[in-house]
Amino acid sequence: MTLAQAKRGQRLLIAAIPNPTIRAQAIRFGIAEGAEVECFEKLPAGPVVVGRGKQEIAIGRRLAENIEVQLAG
């Protein structure tokens, strides 16, 4: 599943960011493959707000569609 498909409150593990350009953008925000994040908010047709530690980041829907995640267990 992609980050754009995540639901509010889910804890997620970033599984893959296949596109190198998008991977570089995500790394600048502190999100890399293997990182665990929580979906704080998902705005209709808008960004997905994720948090890691004390940091919250709004990720645009197009970017979120290119980040593969899985539920953190």
UniProtKB/TrEMBL annotation:
Iron: is it a keyword of this entry? yes
For this entry, the protein name equals Ferrous iron transporter FeoA-like domain-containing protein
Q: Which residues form the Ferrous iron transporter FeoA-like domain?
A: 1-71
Q: Which top-level group of life is the source organism from?
A: Bacteria
Query: InterPro entries given for it?
Result: Fe-transptr_FeoA-like (IPR007167), FeoA_core_dom (IPR038157), Transcriptional_repressor_C (IPR008988)
Source organism of this protein record: Sporomusa acidovorans (strain ATCC 49682 / DSM 3132 / Mol)
Keyword set, alphabetical order: Iron
The cross-references to Pfam families, in alphabetical order and at most eight, read: FeoA (PF04023)
